[in-house]
Amino acid sequence: MDEISRHCLDDSQPETVHIEVHLPGRVDPARLRTAFHRALARHPRILMRQAPVRWWHRRYTWQLTAAPDVDPVDFPPPGPDALARARRRALDACPPLDASPPVRLEVIEEAGGGTVLLLTVHHTALDGPACLRVLATAAALYGGADSPPGPSPVRAAGPGTERPQADDRPTAGRRFSRPARIAAVPGRTPHGGRSEHDALPRHSTRPEHDAPPGHGMLLTNLPIPPRPPRAPGQPAPYTVNDQLLVATWLMIARWNRLHAPTGPHGTPSPSTSPITITMPVDDRPRGADMPIGNGTRLLTVGFGPEERRDAGPLTADPPHPDAVARLLRRTAARTCALKAAPPGRQLGLPATLLTAPVLPVMLRGAVTRALRAAAAPWTSTTLLSNIGRIPYPLDFGDAGRPTAVWFSAPARTPRGLTVTTASVAGRIQVALRWSPALLDDAAGARLGDLFRSSLAATAWTPPRNGGAAR
Q: Using one digit for the tens of pLDDT, what is the confidence trace for 62-82?
């Protein structure tokens, strides 16, 4: 994965993971810098750089270093636009691969007395959960308390919540169909306005009158939609991750319906291509021995003809509750089957052949880029990366524990859009990130509104007066 990512790097589409941690208090700069450097030493796999490469070399090579080549911790001057500028850097500029470590930590003081820790990670070398593990160690060293992973939450039991059985599992759709694409906004502008819904705390990252390369991003936090209670001795009928998958599907289907070309009678002509969603799964332990690097495996959730038959009620405003309930049950069955299947090669046999050290690395890079371009039409519609409940307290002593944590994943084309979520203090922190070739900020805000209402549509409603639950 590292090599293929390295082959396909593009300055106009930075391969960065952005992690943003909001603390209620102020940190001591010298103490934080010391704690972060000590955390790097405790996780030496993060102290790496790419060795110089020549065209005839057979592989890219990582070199471990005893200490950082450059100080990754920076304290930008405070100001009203300091956080916006740091976000812009996180989306536009990757930490270099030839200097250890390939991560940057910016510490921004907010006017209200809080602090934002903004990490930018080069995704060719590291992923978000690995960098979060290093930050958890830094928090433990800074605050003077251990930072073990917390237990999984336990929900109350209740009747009638069995998972779909094997014979209820829906089909996965047409295997060789080209996935749907998110409809681009025609005539988009470099910067956009606000959505009509201003109750959600949103943060636009694109400054006015400026359209640099990189990505746009929308951050918000939403309530976790209720789920039915768990039956005694039974697993939950579906998970929050299933609800997020369904909300992402609904968002894209509703967006594409609103932006579909009109037919002869002035009605939208929806695409017949299926929506598919790539979902990273992380099986690594969360303790201090967690392997540092890129450790997730990618699964693709396919949606089939059942969704096509329910397209009308699913894309209504609001989506029909019965159709959403059916989609939740089908999605739960699909994700159960995918997670239960034995893991195979991460990117399949073609990737194994492409990375075999037979030809020089530069020749393999040219072949990889050509094949990636040829395979672009079959790339999944979007990527949903659900970090889940933050498993560490991230206690920074006098500066406090996080009030919000956002992640965002790269949004390279042909997908052009990623959804990244995490759970903090009983709410879901959502980051939509998109390619500027696809959306502007105004369109991104409208898409965020669709996600909000789509996630709300997955909420379970308890039965009333003996009726059926939704």
A: 999 999 999 999 999 999 999
Closest-CA residue to 103 (of 148, 24, 145, 43): 43
What's the pLDDT tens digit per position in 270-328?
Answer: 567 899 999 999 989 988 889 999 988 889 999 988 898 899 999 999 999 999 999 99
Rounded to an integer, what distance in angstroms lies between the CA atom of residue 425 and that of residue 52?
A: 44
| Segments of the chain scoring below 70 in pLDDT | 146-176, 187-213, 261-271, 344-350, 464-470
Cα separation, 462 vs 445, whole angstroms: 31
| Spatial contact of 274 and 180, defined as CB atoms under 8 Å apart | yes
- Per-residue burial over 40-60, b = 16 or more CB atoms within 10 Å of its CB, e = otherwise: beebebbbbbbeebeeeeeeb
341 Cβ partners below 8 Å, 6+ apart?
none
Instruction: State the Cα–Cα distance between residues 291 and 320, nearest whole angstrom.
Output: 43
Instruction: List beta partners, residue 204.
Output: 218
Q: What is the CATH number of domain 2-456?
A: 3.30.559.10
Say which amino acid occupies 262: T
Domain ranges of the chain: 2-456
For residues 454 and 311, give the distance between their C-alpha atoms in angstroms, rounded to a whole number.
Answer: 14
**How much is the CA Rg of the chain, to the nearest whole Å?**
22
